[in-house]
Write a structure and sequence with these properties.
heterodimer; A: alpha+beta; 5-stranded mixed beta sheet; 5 strands; about 30% helix; globular; disordered C terminus; B: about 210 residues; alpha+beta; 3-stranded mixed beta sheet; 4 helices; 8 strands; elongated
């Protein structure tokens, strides 16, 4: 089985196919951005992008994403560590407190802004309604998404095509996989 | 800066030596990072004595006091009792706002959590066991449940506090349920005495006995 994660093809043994995707990403690939919180697809902390669509992966298996493009939060920043404009906006607006919802929130917002680069605040609220946040009251998250939206539209095509960094996968933990 | 540590002064994001030479705080942090030195300082603050008589409920219980005000605007659905918040304003005396953006975050977070407390969140217990164990049944506010919020920081540095800061977080949370309850009373004439106030303003039997207020 081959997976395409953050632009890299990796080989995984067939036996991993039944593993839960969020566990596999976190424990085997060390991509700990996706969080496992409610375990039943209610909170959105585990959200990653599958072919540009946000998906709650705590209720998905590894085999569900074979043949799809997977983007985790680790693949959003530039290879040199420069933050994506959306991530930068989150920092500037104080949209992060404990940070547990942030990876899922950023990816949900990223997918939303790619589709709708000039949203109203009400549309942003609707878009992130599936992601729970206990700290921020969403206000500054919405501010951040609104602020970052100027970077989308025309520029968005380049962002989604950008090749994510190689260092995102920890080779020692991928073991015998052709990573 | 070629002078003893005691003579260094911090002013307006710059660090000054004795003879007036200076570097910016950002530059100092960069140099410390490069030489792998950790910027730290150790200090001790002892809170002033407070007196509190548990028996009489009298005394000077706290050494500082916070003042705040929150207001909400809402609509109640006549049939279903569903409450929709339209806007919320929070104004608090926070002492000194050390990091204003984070202070605002505390305002909004408190308002959001207080909204959940007032309208949705309830730990249901059956036969001694909690029945709503996950986020699908224990309902915390989602983005659409919350209104646009406004935060007003009132700075009034506290002379007793080491940084002048008082507290925010708890106050913004606590004021929300009363604000919503008062708004519901104004809208429907119905007083609520238990939380969460799920049935908004639609007439329902209140459990309040005579003399309860």
């Amino acid at each position: 089985m081959r997976l395409n994660i953050n632009g890299r093809e990796i080989e995984v043994p067939d036996s991993a196919g039944d593993r839960r995707l969020v566990e596999f990403l976190r424990e085997d690939l060390d991509l700990t951005g996706a969080k496992n919180a409610c375990d039943i697809g209610a909170c959105g902390a585990c959200t990653i992008l599958i072919d540009g669509e946000p998906l709650k992966i705590c209720i998905k298996r590894v085999r569900d994403v074979v043949g799809h493009k997977v983007l985790t939060i680790e693949g959003l920043a530039a290879p040199d560590g420069t933050l994506h404009p959306l991530q930068q906006a989150f920092v500037e607006c104080g949209a992060i407190q404990c940070g547990f919802c942030t990876p899922g929130m950023v990816l949900t917002a990223h997918a939303f802004l790619l589709k709708n680069p000039r949203p109203t605040r009400e549309q942003i609220r609707k878009a992130i309604n599936g992601n729970l946040c206990r700290c921020t009251g969403y206000q500054q998250i919405i501010d951040a998404i609104e602020r970052a939206s100027v970077h989308y539209g025309k520029a968005a095509a380049d962002v989604s095509r950008r090749r994510p960094p190689r260092r995102e996968l920890a080779p020692n933990n991928v073991g015998g996989y052709d990573g | 800066l070629h002078c003893p540590a005691g003579e260094v002064q911090f002013r307006e994001d710059f660090i000054f030596g004795k003879a007036g030479e200076n570097i910016s705080f950002a530059e100092a942090m960069r140099q410390m990072f490069q030489t792998q030195r950790f910027p730290y300082a150790l200090g001790v603050f002892k809170a002033p004595r407070v007196t509190w008589d548990e028996h009489t409920g009298q005394g000077d219980a706290y050494f500082t006091w916070v003042y705040g005000c929150q207001a909400v605007e809402l609509t109640v659905n006549r049939k279903t009792g569903k409450v929709k918040l339209l806007s919320a304003v929070a104004a608090h005396d926070v002492g000194r706002a050390v990091n204003p953006e984070m202070v605002r975050g505390q305002f909004f977070g408190g308002v959001a959590m207080g909204t959940g407390f007032a309208l949705h969140e309830e730990v249901k217990i059956k036969d001694g066991k909690i029945t709503n164990l996950n986020l699908n049944t224990y309902r915390i506010p989602r983005a659409l449940d919350l209104p646009e919020m406004k935060a007003m920081i009132v700075e009034n540095p506290d002379p007793i506090s080491p940084t002048g800061a008082k507290a925010i977080g708890e106050p913004s949370n606590e004021l929300m349920a009363p604000a919503i309850a008062n708004a519901l009373y104004h809208a429907t004439g119905q007083r609520h005495f238990t939380l969460p106030m799920r049935n908004g303003g639609v007439p329902e039997a209140t459990n309040c006995q005579e003399g309860c207020k």
